[in-house]
Design a protein that fits this description.
Length: 212
């Protein structure tokens, strides 16, 4: 019997059926407490044959409402950066390390404010990300921000140490090539948005060249 909020999504994963079965099963995931306040599970989207997988932190407010990753302001900026780097956003598989929106409110009824997921919450959701990687088998993974990096590579990961460099690391039992960069929301928050945006594009160009 599956225990609700057992802090692992593993019992909720299907044994077969590829991405469609994973997406359907994720909709009923109760593997950690984040599902209680979120509107819905926000699973990854894109082609099962995508050569590029983009992994962010978690859904935001708009993603939680619409059920699709990267449809808010950060997503629009990411699409523009991908295009500027010579990558077609439509050819990428896009997902998050955590599939439910974690938030707080300053006051009841006020705007929902993003709250970073804990390592335990990211670990609980890790089976979904591992299953997505296994189903898509991307040639390149772009890690967007610290939370995604820690979810994939461990708690010692630091974006600033390795951003814009092609790495080959073992992730969930398989060797994968990856490039890390900042999360697009960090660009939106930056005091020098133009410089931060160009840095993001530069990192994405590294991934684009590696895929050629």
């Amino acid at each position: 019997m599956v225990t609700e909020d057992a802090c692992t999504a593993a019992p909720f994963l299907p044994t077969r059926g590829g991405l469609p079965a994973l997406r359907k099963a994720a909709a009923t995931c109760r593997g950690c407490p984040l599902h209680r306040d979120a509107t819905q599970t926000v699973f990854g989207t894109g082609k099962a044959t995508a050569r590029l997988m983009l992994v962010g932190e978690q859904p935001g407010d708009q993603e939680d409402r619409q059920g699709t990753p990267f449809v808010g302001p950060a997503g629009h900026l990411l699409d523009r950066a991908l295009a500027d780097a010579g990558l077609d956003p439509a050819d990428a598989y896009v997902t998050n390390a955590v599939k439910h929106f974690k938030f707080t409110r300053a006051e009841p009824g006020k705007r929902r404010i993003h709250k970073a997921p804990t390592l335990r919450e990211a670990a609980a959701c890790a089976p979904w990300l591992a299953a997505e990687l296994a189903a898509v088998e991307p040639e390149m993974v772009v890690v967007l921000g610290a939370t995604a990096g820690k979810a994939l590579l461990g708690s010692s990961f630091r974006v600033t140490d390795v951003r814009g460099t092609v790495l080959e690391e073992e992730i969930h039992g398989h060797r994968r090539r990856l490039v890390s960069t900042v999360h697009p929301s960090a660009v939106l928050r930056s005091d020098d948005r133009d410089a931060a945006y160009q840095g993001l594009v530069s990192d994405l160009k590294v991934a684009a060249r590696a895929l050629k």
